[in-house]
Structure formats: structure tokens, C-alpha cells
């Protein structure tokens, strides 16, 4: 008897679980040959709401983890991605990439994770400073994570844009709610499975498929979201982001990069989602002979 | 059974014969309450009603007069940026904090409820429980939340439990008595029903699910069983008893489901804070956030509301 193939159900990723969208809706994106990619969840504003709640809940634990442990976990994501390379390459090819381009995209994604894994216990030393002040204080500045970050991932790639946008955000101790590429959604959910099996605590990354146009507003106006990362160059979207962010003065980070390039990664993408905390620590007799500050 | 102290001259039923509860039926009924769609104006009205039914609670070993004062302030000023918000119904504290709370809410209409009878375990001799209660009343408590002796109840000593409640009711004087069944320790819904009957016949003005210290607390199944007991008691005796689910009701949705359940089980007569209360600490902020969300269309953050 011929075996019936089992097709994968692509669901969304909220708080470490894989629910269907609360709205019960789905859509059918097609590849360039006109083939259906699958029944993909068309997430709604309520999924955004639930994701933000999950991200907020995860923030305390994730931001308080030792920096090197966050690095280890990011490295672990890279390891798991390496192990499932074939699946990602197949999905990328199904979504329209050539074999060579697909292999390259997965490799660059793995390397990118490792790049930010390396930074996670080093950025603070590099960016932090001890500041000269005129009073009897030891004054220093350090970087602390912003909180919950909304990420509108690159819409032109399925995997590399997503990884490039998520990695610097979580390496710095933030948690995030990610709107994945609307028409290239397959790798986003498979990547969620990778996250789920790599010691990333539930809620640190939440991934929604569907139409960013629909979800950007509730995400950006959400008072419990502290910053927005936008990858792309659509002027009207950027305007919309800026307008709705004004409510609680979220910072908007926009990147217009070709993520597949090896140099589309840097420390500043990590520091963009950090706030600088400066501490004035009283000390005795700053002008005395023993002071070396 | 002979006529004893407790509620006037009611003929007491045999509590071993209390109604049995159909658990599957209760679960199906409860699921129906959760499927009601409450939106827009009805939701807003429900949210404000819920807010006005909250007993804002702090029952921790680390409570200080400062914390109690802060909570009492919050009880009267839930969110000053928004006009026309009701206050909560009462604040609920330990007996030692009643004096502080009574002074802090004086003249505001917010009542002071005090737990008593060696809350939360209830493992103390009767004279200690009576003193505990009288102390709270003397300090100015309008309402007393007592716990029943679950150990005695589970070993079948229903008379002991009955007498204890009746005695505490006497000690309450004019203060209203809420009887906490601690349903999480009663194991079955049949026991919840029986304990509800005992409490109501013994003189409870309110029956309350839980202390909040044991899980599970106020599940809808348990609350529904108690509401049914209240309805049957009202039909039999004509005496209206209040209900207070406490513990675990931390979001607006759950609160609205509870209100639907009260309306459909007991009717509008119970939909005031005279007869229905939520024992909660974090519910108030969630309801406030929902109210602001409904008005502005923007999801809210706890960062912009007072701390619990």
C-alpha cells in the first residue's frame, strides 16, 4: 500500500508553545511556481497581545541571566540550526531559492548567531565606561536591556533576515515579539522549533506569521513594548511606526541591509536595543593622593 | 437534628445528606459561562462592576502598616487619571493591621475586612479564635473572614464545624461574617456543597472559597457549586447569602465569566458588592488596564499603573 505523506502544520510560537492563531484564520502564500507553501496562520492583534504578555513574563529571567550563559544559549541555537540544515535548505528551495543560495543562507545564519553569541558577554566591557567627574564620585555607565522589543523582520528573506534581527536583540538580554516575512513564512516557524529545542526559555522569542501591515499597529502602540526593530525601507511603514511609537516614546531602530552579506552584522545593532545606565557612587576624597579615578 | 444556636430557629437539615454534585454537569455548565461574548458597553459595565466588587487584599507575613496604608490609598484612588471610576468594595487584612486600615479608609465608604480564627490554617483552640475575632471587631473591622476547621470537617465532625461557625458569628457582633471553606483542601465538590450548607445554616453572611494560600483556589467549578448552594438556601429559607470567590482570579476575563455565572445562577439581586465580592490583589490592575484599553484602543502596560 502506498504511504500517505504527513504534511507539516505550521503554527505560531508564543511563550514557548506552538498554538494556532487565536483568530482561527489562515492564508496560503504561493512560491514562484504557483505552488502552495502551506496553510499558514494569519495571526491577529490578540496573538500580538498574548505574545507581549509572554515576552514581558520572560524578560526578568532572561535579562538577569549571566551574560556568558546567554552566549552559550545563542551558540546552542547555532548548533541546533546546523543539525537541521537540510530541512532549512529544502524549505528555502521550496520558497524559491537556488540550492547554492539556500546553502549559503543557512550557513550565514549559523555564523551570525555565533557572532552575536560571542558578543553577549563582551559588549558590556566594550561599550561601558568609567567617566571622569568633578565631584567625589566614582561614575560609571553600563548598558542594560530595554525590555520587550517588537521586531518587524526582513520581508525579502525567510531565514537570514529573521536571524539577523532576532540575535542582537536577545543577545543583549531583551525579549521580543517577531513578525516574520509574510510571503516566506516557512523558515520562521521551523526556526521557532530550533529555538524551542535550544534552551531558550519560553517567551524570550515569540514568532507570529501573517500580515505585518495588520499587526504593526497593535504592536507598536502597545504600552508594554519598549522598542521596535524594523528591517526594510518602506517609507510609509516607517512613518506609521514612528507615529504610533510616540505614545510611550519607544525607540525605533530601522535597518536597510542586505542581510546575506557577511558584514551585515555589528556591535551597534546590539547596543541599539540597550539603555545606558549611569551610576554615581560616592567615594571619599577624590582629590587626595590615593585617588586614581 | 435538634434546633441549636446558629441561624435563628431554622430547622437544620442532616448535613450528611447534603445534595450530591454532578461533577460532569458542573463542568459542562461552567464551560458554557466561559463562552459568553461580552463586548463594548456591556464589557465596560461589567469591568466597572467587577472593580467595585473587589476586596483588595494583602495577607502576607511581611505586611507592614506602611504597606497597608498604601493599599488603602489605592483602594480609594484606583487610577486618578481616569474620572468616574468606582472604588473597590473593601480592603482585606490581618487582624493586627485592622486599626491601621480602618483609620486609612475612614469616611470613604471602603469597608475593612479582617481574616481571623488563626487564618489560614485555623489550627488553634476555640478561645484563641474567639479572641482573634473580637480583637479585629474592636479594632474596627466591618467584616470578618473566618476559616473553617477542615481537619474536623474531613473527619466527619460536622457538628464541631457548625458550632464553631455559630460561636464566631456571635463574636462578630454587628460585623458581617464570611466563612472561608478552603475548597482546595475539601477534595470533592460534594464536600464543598456540604460545607457551604453547614456554613449558611450556622450563620454565615457570606461564603468564600479560599484563603488564597492553597492551590487550586477559586475555580469556576467550585464557585458554581457554592452559588447553587446559596440559591437552594435562599429558596428554602428566604435568606440571602453573599458569595466571595478568592484566590486565582487575576484577570478581567475570569472576573467577567464569574459575573455571568452569578447572574445566570442567582440573578441580578446578587450583582452588587453587598452580595458578591472578589478576593484578589492583582485583579484590580488588570481590570483598570482593560478599561483604559477599551477607551483608548491601545494595549496597556503595568508600568503606568500603581503597584499592587
What does this structure look like?
The complex is a heterodimer of chains A (293) and B (308). In chain A, helix 7 links the parallel strand 6 and strand 7 (205-208). Chain A is globular and about 85 Å long. In chain A, helix 3 (85-94) packs across helix 4 and helix 8 packs parallel to helix 9. Chain A has one domain (37-282): 3-Layer(aba) Sandwich (Aldehyde Dehydrogenase, Chain A, domain 1), CATH 3.40.605.10. In chain A, strands 7-6-5-8-9 form a 5-stranded parallel sheet, with helices on both faces. In chain A, strands 3-4-10 form a 3-stranded antiparallel sheet. A two-stranded antiparallel sheet of chain A has the order 1-2. Chain A contains 10 helices and 10 strands. Helices cover 42% and strands 17% of the residues of chain A. The mean pLDDT of chain A is 94. Chain A has helices at residues 45-64, 67-83, 85-94, 99-119, 123-127, 160-171, 186-196, 212-221, 235-245, 267-271, and strands at 26-27, 40-41, 129-131, 137-145, 148-152, 175-179, 205-208, 227-231, 251-255, 274-282. Chain A is an alpha/beta fold and 293 residues long. Chain B is α/β, with parallel strands linked by helices and 308 residues long. Chain B has one domain: Aldolase class I (TIM Barrel, Alpha-Beta Barrel). Chain B contains 11 helices and 8 strands. Chain B has helices at residues 23-33, 40-52, 65-76, 98-105, 126-139, 150-154, 158-172, 189-202, 220-237, 252-265, 283-296, and strands spanning 54-57, 90-93, 111-116, 143-147, 176-180, 206-208, 242-244, 278-280. An 8-stranded parallel sheet of chain B has the order 7-6-5-4-3-2-1-8. In chain B, helix 1 crosses helix 9 (220-237), helix 2 packs across helix 10 (252-265) and helix 7 packs across helix 8 (189-202).
